[in-house]
From TrEMBL:
The gene is nqrD. It comes from the Bacteria. Pfam families: Rnf-Nqr. The chain crosses the membrane at residues 39-58, 70-91, 97-115, 127-148, 181-199. NQR complex catalyzes the reduction of ubiquinone-1 to ubiquinol by two successive reactions, coupled with the transport of Na(+) ions from the cytoplasm to the periplasm. NqrA to NqrE are probably involved in the second step, the conversion of ubisemiquinone to ubiquinol. It comes from Winogradskyella pulchriflava. This is Na(+)-translocating NADH-quinone reductase subunit D. It catalyses: a ubiquinone + n Na(+)(in) + NADH + H(+) = a ubiquinol + n Na(+)(out) + NAD(+).
């Protein structure tokens, strides 16, 4: 496997930023009760991290070491403001659902970590691939968690009923199935992430810490 392809593929599995590095987990708990919000947050982080890594890489030789964190925060804050304005312009209701969590992308440990660990020491192309890879790894977990929380908690996906009508008792509800409201609470997100971590480590024993 080439070095460039590993930058994309490693964060999707054996070096996932959430399940392996345990970074950016707060948003996985907060906004994954709905699949749509999970997808939009994933796309937002994909844009911010991909573009941000390139910008920091291009500036890496002119950023004074003493103020590099401030510069990084300015870059990510600018990109987050762009995301927030786009959401308010084209998906206002969803922007209200995500509300403060879009702003908190600024302090997402994954983004600042990749700026520091990779973009400051590598060229724009590799930094772009690293940003895309880590954002995809983050997004995959958010989407998996959002899928199961919305499906089992509300019986819907992207707002559309897929298990039947709980009021009219059609579909699975006619067989006695009931939505699990606990899935919509933040603690269940942590449990779902924990199950993903367990499955991942059971498939790859090398990931189990001593």
């Amino acid at each position: 496997m080439g070095k460039d392809s590993k930058l994309i593929l490693d964060p999707l599995a054996d070096n996932n930023p959430i399940t392996i590095q345990v970074l950016g987990i707060c948003s996985a708990l907060a906004i994954t009760a709905e699949l749509e919000a999970s997808i939009v947050m994933s796309i937002s982080v994909l844009f911010v991290l991909g573009v941000g890594n390139v910008v920091i890489s291009l500036m890496r030789n002119i950023i004074p070491s003493k103020i590099r964190i401030i510069v990084q925060l300015i870059v990510v804050a600018t990109l987050v403001i762009i995301v927030d304005l786009v959401l308010k312009a084209f998906a206002y209701e969803l922007s209200k659902t995500l509300s403060v969590f879009v702003g908190l992308i600024i302090t997402n440990c994954i983004i600042m970590g990749r700026f520091e660990a990779f973009a400051l020491g590598n060229g724009p192309w590799r930094s772009f691939l690293d940003g895309i890879g880590n954002a995809l790894g983050y997004g995959v977990i958010l989407i998996i968690v959002g899928f199961f929380r919305e499906l089992l908690g509300s019986g819907t996906l992207l707002g559309f009923p897929v298990l039947g009508d709980p009021i009219e008792k059609t579909g699975l509800y006619a067989l006695g199935y009931e939505n699990n409201g606990f899935m919509l609470l933040s603690p269940m997100a942590l449990i779902v992430v924990g199950i993903i971590i367990w499955v991942q480590r059971s498939r790859n024993k090398a990931l189990i810490e001593d």
